[in-house]
Amino acid sequence: GYVSTWYDQSGNANDATQATTTSQPKIVDAGALVTGGLDFDGVDDKLSLSGTGLDIFKNVGYGQLFSVVTPDETTTGSNRYFEAVSGTDTGARLLLGDSQDYASSSRIGGRRLDSDGFQDVESPTSHGNNETLLTGFLNWADAEAYLYQNGTEVSKSSSFITAGNTSNTSSTSIAIGGVQTAFGQFKMKELIVYNSDQSDNRRAIESDIASHYGISVP
């Protein structure tokens, strides 16, 4: 069994969809529900946003992601869990995925203006192949970036690019699983996307997610 639509629960109808059967993530394997959530194969699986969904990181100060993932990557890699590509360039406006510097770890990166170069923050803390509550904050307004693993900060930058809102251009592509050629190989149960600052609510949101999925957080 495969998933063609992951429905947006926010009421904004920004559903993530995939019409191509071979690029749909798996939800049932050999008659049994996949235990880790949607299973992305790392080859070409992705669920894309369209329409107003491409505007969610347009002229905003924050891109904040809460996810429950089980990564398959055990070394360093370019796998993506979520990616938004902006403007006419291929550089990601926001990317949450595997670390290219540390084995079996994570990173968050992006850029604020279409003319900026891509930058990222890498975590030295391994997630192994465990189900993980992974939180990534790209606070363009404050020039800050943060990564949290199971509620604990594992990496940050307080001088990330320049402070301000993002470019006033829509993303050309946004997808769970990646939008270019380095698609993610992982399983995902939950993804919550904010374009507003949830810093004061982070611990409460993570606590609720962790309680629901039985993940231990401090």
Largest sheet: 6 strands, antiparallel
The outline comes out as: globular
Distance between the termini: 36 Å
Percent helix: under 10%
Number of strands: 16
> How much of the sequence is in beta strands?
35-45%
The poorly predicted ranges are none
Number of helices: 1
Helix/strand-derived class? mainly beta
Major sheet strand order: 5-16-7-12-13-14
What radius of gyration results from the CA coordinates? 16 Å
Structure, briefly:
This protein has 218 residues and is mainly beta.
Topology:
Blueprint: E1 5-6, E2 16-17, E3 28-29, E4 32-33, E5 38-41, E6 47-48, E7 63-71, E8 80-86, E9 92-98, E10 106-110, E11 119-122, E12 132-139, E13 144-149, E14 152-157, E15 171-176, E16 185-194, H1 202-213
Antiparallel strand pairs: 1-2, 3-4, 5-16, 6-15, 7-12, 7-16, 8-9, 8-15, 9-10, 10-11, 12-13, 13-14
Structure description:
- With 218 residues, the protein is mainly beta.
- It contains one helix and 16 strands.
- The strands form four sheets. The chain has a six-stranded antiparallel beta sheet, covered by helices on one side.
- A hairpin with a 5-residue loop joins β8 and β9.
- It is globular.
Keywords:
218 residues; mainly beta; 6-stranded antiparallel beta sheet; 16 strands
